[in-house]
């Protein structure tokens, strides 16, 4: 659980998305997980679920989502006020004088954070489909609100995707059967390094493919690409630094401490 909490850090978000989307691309489901890597798959899904739960207001009814969104922005402003008192730099979303329009900020969160993860999680947990449907409705509502308000987008990267455009992209990202182009800070897409769970020397997880992919040329290319990532010659990916530190902490905690001899006592 410590590992999942550490991965709520924004700097680890891209890794979480890449891992979960990679499992979808491999056709892994909760019914065909390789017994050799159940722990890794469970860990990847736990990270994703925790991030989604942290911003779950986006999947509530529009009225509830807007109320929580206002509370979120108020909380961010309080944090920004404290940062100013301490002489620390304040991000625009935490600066009262520069805070973006509520709808603008929510569209940014949905497009850059929730939709990519939720789309992948629906593949594993079909019962989340109503949540995805509600997010689509909310995104459409926020786009209309932003347009009618006359505000220009103030959120980072949002200038590349006006309100209506981001609402459409949210709908696309919620479809787990489509490829997900991970967005960098400058708005360019990237494929990223293979950090998928179970990427060590073993076969691609799960033989079942998405029905929409069966018998298509794209599925063959996807399968060959996934298989190339799992060739025995490829070295296993190294865990992120944060994860290594947590594992070291866990190992030290489990190591029994030998009693001190009288001569060693202070």
Automatic annotation (TrEMBL):
SUPFAM superfamilies for this protein: HD-domain/PDEase-like (SSF109604)
Region (Disordered): 182-266
Entry keyword Repeat: no
Keyword match Metal-binding: yes
Domain PDEase: 1-149
Basic and acidic residues biased stretches: 244-254
Alphabetic keyword roster: Hydrolase, Metal-binding
One annotated GO biological process: signal transduction
Comp. bias (Polar residues): 188-202, 213-227
PROSITE patterns: PDEASE_I_2
Pfam families named in the record: PDEase_I (PF00233)
InterPro entries hit by this protein: PDEase_catalytic_dom, PDEase_catalytic_dom_sf
GO-annotated molecular function: 3',5'-cyclic-nucleotide phosphodiesterase activity; metal ion binding
Top-level division of the source organism's lineage: Eukaryota
Protein known as: PDEase domain-containing protein
Phylogenetic lineage: Eukaryota, Sar, Alveolata, Dinophyceae, Suessiales
